[in-house]
Amino acid sequence: MRKSKKFRQKVPDRQLRRGFGRVLLSAVVLYATMGLGASALDFKCVEPSRYKNLLQIFEDNPAMLSSYFGLSQTHQPDMNACRALVVSGTIRDGDGAALLDNIIRNKGWLDVLYLSFDGVHLQEEIKLAHIIRGFWLKTRVLLAGPFRYSPDFARLWGLRAASDSRPSAAATSELSPLNRGLEAFAKRGDLGLPNIGARSACLESCAGAWIAGVHRQALPLPAIAVPSPTAAAVPEIVTAWPRSALAASLDGGKIASPNDPSWNRLVIAGAASVLPPAADRLIRDKCAAELIAGQAIEDRVAGAMDDLARGDFGGVRRVPADLLEQVDSLRMAGLRLQRCVARAFESERLASFRRLCGPNCDNATLLATFDQMAREFIESRLSLSNILGPGQSDKIGREWREEEAGGPGTWMRREMSNVFDATWTPSSGPPTTATIEIGRVEDRIAMVRSQAEGRCLYRGIIAADDKSARGTYTCSWAPGIYAWNATISE
Fold first, then answer.
1. What whole-number distance in Å separates Cα of residue 85 and Cα of residue 139?
2. For the chain, which terminal residue's Cβ has fewer other Cβ atoms within 10 angstroms, N or C?
3. Which helix (H) or strand (E) segment is 329 a member of?
4. Is the same domain home to 374 and 410?
5. Do 430 and 374 have their domain in common?
6. Are 421 and 344 in contact (CB under 8 A)?
7. What gap in Å lies between CA 243 and CA 120, rounded to an integer?
8. d(C-alpha 296, C-alpha 314), whole Å
């Protein structure tokens, strides 16, 4: 991985940290998976998702595939393109560019990302998130095996409930014309996802990528959308507020104030709605007729069941044929809605690709655009007013003698401001200089470090005697969460 000349890091073996808000960070060492030796993200095509393989679902008929997705004769899929990718490894510099390369290589036909990675790299995470949302990609996290590819656009609907059971009627009893193709596809021997072993994990910056999806799922769905004890072991708390702000900005919602209790609520894969607001509006707009028709049929079925219940199901020996037919009508409404949703997502994704790429995709220009989006987000959101809010104390000392992964540092306060001039002197290489804004509310401490490469966010607590502080930090341009500690003098 490329290292900044001004940021030479030495990574400890493990990080152990507990607590939210004002809870003391009792021990801070580096998280084991944050080592600089780990590789960058690996993007692997899910081979059965190539469109030439998906044709099996459509009776090997390209026209049937095009009709299902509502594609024009002039806009047909590249049969060698991948519809799904597995993204695994540890996030590093350049991963946003790698995702962009894959999107362009697949000519806009890439649709789904299966995420199984870890690591913290704020700038790269924000860049990935904007690329995923900009190109209208779906995101998936598999919480348990089997780790198999499943088509995102259709499901098995089985036989009609009211179908004749005679063999001659078998061909007409299928609810969906895709049922037989889906059944055959499900029997393939190559549906296992590459690069996912016995455990699939979406940790730290992966959660920011997952939340950016326009259709985001964690499969199988958790019974309740709360982080597990393992997920809450909190290497993420240092980035909790920036990631929450990222999720809110992507979804167009209001970003919570720093004093809101939700500021340190972790963004966890699976703990959010399947559809972000923009996608929900799209479906309600494009598929309004299907939604209304389905609701009307559902009401009729519910009414028929109520009628039977009022009679205490007296004399009912089998489900009435007219009720079974209504159930089939309801399932058919679901089938039509499924197809409408598939078409709406396909149309919007392809339109997004044309809008961003134009006739000739310029990778460098696109990457520069997303780089700028990430930088602007960091510049506008990583500020003391966002992190700590009102009620800041001026008891922040005059001189800080600090130790961190980049080497020992000295921070000197500018008169009575909250700005410090900082210098680090690593054991090898030139000194590093930056400015640091320090804010304090009660025993909470937050700092924003600014230099040419970007910004770093420091979080921690200050001792009761005001003479020492410790915590963790992460930088926008470098992966990982790192420990710091300092002694403070007046």
1. 10
2. C
3. helix 321-357
4. no
5. no
6. no
7. 11
8. 27
